[in-house]
Fold Probable endonuclease 4.
Amino acid sequence: MLIGAHQSISKSIDLSIKRALADGCECLQVFVKNNNRWEGKVISEEEAEKFRKGLADSGFKVCAHSSYLINLASFKEDTYIKSVKACNDELSRCDRLNIPFYVIHPGSHVGEGEKKGIRRIADTIDRVYEGGYQCMTLLEMVAGQGTNIGYSIENMLDIIELSASKDKIGICFDSCHMFAAGFDLKDDYDNVTKELFEAFGDKVKVFHLNDSKKPLNSRRDRHELVGKGEIGEDFFKKAVNDARFSDILGILETPVEENYKKEIELLKSYREC
Ligand SMILES: [Zn+2]
């Protein structure tokens, strides 16, 4: 597994690569615009070129994470239109920046029911991909809080099955979310990962490496530092040495005092070869 972290794009997106280098990352995740706004500032051609060159020079693999406002399952006209627009904007930014993967939480049905929500997500992805993007969308496994969709293997397979853009959809794991959703990565690693790989195979591209403040099946999403939470160190040792994850981007999302350096070192120290 490549080990990296979610890096800030503050001031200029190309600085995220410098930050990743300073932390000892082997890969990174970024937002492609302010994650709490619908509209983002335009990335200048100079900035985009610096980012692309930084990627090429460092050899980093990279993924983007979507804005938190987007809900692909929304049935509210206003939110829906804004979500489709923002998703198009972010995917075109990814293409421009040579980012091959775009991670997004599948969406929330907000009372309309899971079945309807799942169909809505598949339809929305198809609508967005009418834009003809290169970048692949990775549906992130979630903890299953509220009416969020994407907490189970079935949810994800149903979305993929209903979509006409299947080859553009991949999967992003998140150890914290999955543990909270009932995947026992702590005491049943072998069976759980076997089931996941049988279902998703090479669609798995990114693994968010977060420990969990909340127990198994709590359905609550609270990130904790590696080894300091309910999942514990053993899981991370197994994951970084798991051959099935060798090409996958392992991404830390819980900064230690805004500095991932220590956690990256810790994860690297778990490597057996
Ligand atoms: Zn995550």
About this structure: The chain has one domain: 2-269. Residues 60 and 259 are 19 Å apart (CA to CA). The longest strand covers residues 169-174.
